[in-house]
Amino acid sequence: MSEPSAWRVLERRSLASYRVFEVSEVRSQRVDSGQTQVFYRIDSVDWVNVVALTTGGQVIMIRQFRHGAASVTLEIPGGMVDTDETPEAAAARELVEETGYRAGRLALLGAVSPNPALFANRIHTFLASDCERVSEISNDHDEQTQVELVDVNRIDDLLRAGAIDHALVMNAFHWWKLRAG
Q1: pTM for the structure as a whole
Q2: Are 74 and 158 spatial neighbours (Cβ–Cβ below 8 Å)?
Q3: pLDDT bracket for residue 181 (50, 70, 90)
């Protein structure tokens, strides 16, 4: 069995641009057969997630309202990488903004495609160790986070119970366990 054929982009047209992403229509041609097809793509900057541990060994988590789920979720700090910063700098910034904690050390755990069928970006997951509280939370005008310190030993139970159900957060804990294991 041969590998699936690649597609060549013939034309890309922006359909809509929003604050956090752009929707594009892409007309592509299959390399092996010449077949053409229209696809839709969501372009966004890269994102970051931070598994943050206090000096006391607790995981720094946040609760926030998510409009897509229409509910308050339990997550780890994270957000968008600004155009003038590296993913590592974004992870450090998001951690302080959303929690008031600063990392003593920051290390990349891994990066994945959030949904390669539609999204063109990546999410970079960092481990922040030896975190200490240095300031108040300083969220953007449209977000509100509440810090929740969770014992490291409770994470698996929260995942199993569905209390943590954000797929990208679950992926971050997977990266963390692979590194720890």
Answers
A1: 0.92
A2: yes
A3: low
